# Entry
Amino acid sequence: MRLRFLLPLLASLLLGACAKSPEWAMNDVTGHLPDLEFNLLGAGNQPVTAADLRGKLVLMYFGYTHCPDICPLSMTHLHQALVKLGPAAEQVRIVFISLDPARDTPALLQAYARAFDPRAIGLTGPLKTVQKLAKRYRIGFSLGKPDQHGNYDVSHSSAVFVFDRDGRARLLATSADNVDAVVHDLTLLLEQSP
Amino acid sequence: MTRRLALALLLLLLPAVAGATSTAPTVSAHDAWIRLLPANLPAAGYVRLDNHTDHSARLVLVSSDAFGSIMLHQSLRDGGSQRMRMVDGMDIPAHGSAALEPGSYHLMLETPRHAIKLGERVVMTLHFDDGSELPVAFEVRPANASGPSTPGK
# Structure
């Protein structure tokens, strides 16, 4: 009688222990995308590598500054998520990587990133380096034809890649994911590795 | 005979001429704001338009002394990819509304003619396909804003 009662209890406890994978609001890409790795230029043309961001959660977004609508919308969502996260947001960095190094200097990128959030940095590098990095995360992008003012559009993915403190790719946010989904998952990630 | 024809033609043309010069707006504007980006980067303009008439209206042009170039753009999502395209107008259905809003239609504002400041109101004139014009004051907001400071106005 006692055993019959205990066995299901034990089983459910064991199952509970195994089913530890949390309910992510965004796409879980753990093990499906490569670790954070780059060598780019940041503020003051100084090299910035993934190692400089170890210990922080990283939200990586590819874009370009001459993009008045979509990139600011994505960056604003990330900013709002960090505001909602509160003091824990100090453990997070937003990394905006420019796909348009011809126009986006490291100095311009800092001003751009900071206009959205104090925890955001802007990085770029030679076009080949940026192309290689985009390919590493399966980001497609193409530079459009310049108009009469020399302006051109850069069509690109609006995905946001989330890396944990060890630089492992964990989650992928799409434009359909709202601010609350980002806050929910960042909170879980921070709980996993306090 | 020719005079009568000329008169008839003139009478026929009159309503069209009157329409073309009319500035009485049939469309009202709300929640007009500009997302200002640093370093004179192209800014975006947004506004919600309500059409109070029983025929559709079409926004075809926006002009302002404040910017050297104003273009009507639309952001598009093709699968996981984002791009922008220039459009020649935006329809506002009869007794309906349409909006220039983040992630969709927007004004791309370039080469500011003066230093645009946060909190400033930049007047831009919306031109519709019936020849009517509507001057609208756009509130200048920071890069990370998601709308005007007091929505609904």
